[in-house]
Write a structure and sequence with these properties.
The protein has 131 residues and is mostly helical. The chain has 6 helices and no strands. It is elongated and about 75 Å long.
Length: 131
C-alpha cells in the first residue's frame, strides 16, 4: 500500500482515543446487541459465548447445590434426590446465564451507536486497502 493511502486509514487506537471506549467494549456490543442478518461466523461466535457462560455457571452452581442438598437431605443414593439435584443445578445455571445476558445487554445498550461507527470505520479501512 502506498504511504499516502496508509495515512488515510483510521487506526483502532484512534477510535479508542476519540470515543474514550476500549475496542473490547465495542466488540462486546456485537455479541450482546443482536444485529439483523447474521453471518455463520457471528452465529457460531454467539453460540460459543453462550456455551462458555453456561459452563461457567454450571461450575459455580454445582458446589452451591451440593451444599444445599447435603444440608437438607441424608439419602445420597436416592434416585429422586439425584433427579432433584440435576434440576436444581440446571435451574440455577439457566437463571444465572439469563441474568448475565440481560445485564450485558443492558450494559451494551448505550454503545450500540459506537459499534455502528466502528463498523463504518472498518468498511472505510477496507476501501482504502482495496484502493
Amino acid at each position: 500500500m502506498q504511504r499516502d493511502l496508509q495515512d488515510l486509514k483510521i487506526l483502532e487506537l484512534e477510535v479508542e482515543k476519540l470515543s474514550n471506549k476500549s475496542l473490547s467494549d465495542i466488540l462486546m456490543v456485537n455479541l450482546y446487541q443482536l444485529p439483523l442478518g447474521f453471518s455463520q461466523r457471528q452465529i457460531l461466535s454467539i453460540m460459543l459465548n453462550q456455551i462458555v457462560v453456561f459452563g461457567l455457571t454450571l461450575i459455580i452452581s454445582l458446589p452451591l447445590t451440593l451444599v444445599m442438598i447435603t444440608k437438607t437431605s441424608y439419602a445420597s443414593d436416592d434416585p429422586r434426590l439425584i433427579n432433584l439435584f440435576i434440576k436444581i443445578v440446571f435451574g440455577i445455571s439457566l437463571g444465572i446465564t439469563l441474568c448475565w445476558n440481560i445485564y450485558m445487554w443492558w450494559k451494551t445498550k448505550p454503545l450500540k451507536e459506537l459499534a455502528k461507527l466502528q463498523n463504518e470505520v472498518n468498511k472505510y479501512n477496507q476501501v482504502i486497502a482495496a484502493v
